[in-house]
Design brief:
alpha/beta; D-Maltodextrin-Binding Protein, domain 2
Length: about 375
Amino acid sequence: MVRIAGDPFFDANDGGICNFKACFGRENVGMKNTAIALAAIAAAALTLGPPAAKAGTLEDVKARGVLNCVVNTGLAGFSFTDKAGKWQGFDTDFCRAVAAAVLGGGDKVKFISATGKTRFTLLNSKEGDLIFRNTTWTFARDVDVKLTFIGTTYYDGQGFMIRKKLGVKSAKQLDGATVCIQTGTTTELNLADFFRANKIEYEPVPIETNEEARTNYLAERCDVYTTDASGLAATRATFDKPDDHLLLPEIISKEPLGGVVRHGDDQWGDVVRWTVSAIVSAEEYGITQANADAKAKGTDNPNINRLLGSEGNLGGMLGLDKQWALRAIKAVGNYAEIFDRNVGPKTNIGMSRGLNAQWYDGGLQYAPPFR
């Protein structure tokens, strides 16, 4: 292998690692499809947002008796169906928490699978009541597409996965690579920005679902798969030989992932936002699935008492009863329980808490006060 002049990552004594195009002979394919892809995304965004939703989703959900929750088509650890056909995962647990708070049980959920392209249409057409589908909070989605983000349940960033046998050690060596990329996502835009900023080129291989990306990547129809780092770790965990694949060190974006409701649906947004906050606060206060009932009888901590309904009536302000948060926690546990059960170090995905640790442990998870 030859050293590429000007490569800032490697010096003359580094063993001569070269960049992707020079090593593997890829044609300088460029970014010929990028402008078309970006234009299509912009046009789609303009058509997705209807007028501000009228208040009433809370009443609709109560009357229906079922929460319609939009989730991924399938992403291990986050939202997927198990062998029995039951939806499981980090995102689906937040759906169940909201259902328990509003309807009395975490089983009162209809899961609606959606691609990156269809998720906002399903929400704004009112087929879905909310989205928990690894969705990034961005300016354009908030302001232009007219969505309301209720906070961040998972702090993430975009990365790259590649086969180890290709010998690539850095994303800056990917000049001329083919890249599997989900259309209608922020990852598509981040990818274009990264390659342009580093003056390298690529050929996109558009896909719509994570399973489609997995299939194309394993069939070597693309050299690289890029999405959120958590999604890459989850996908790699499903491979027969996960150790044959490498997550490159670069994280090229900020991806605050969380729940989404329709713009203008303020009461419903409050219900979803404060249910998530209850799950986060439960970890801080040491409330778990196992001890929630006991603590709901009253403690010496007024914060716990207000949260679980033995003191005051915060639920009444939301249009719910006093035990809404207690039901949510009993249905799925606190934030640590959700994280550890679905994607944590003891799972095959093996994610550490990192930025998703509580604020007092150096992370970014921080719930506003219940008072």
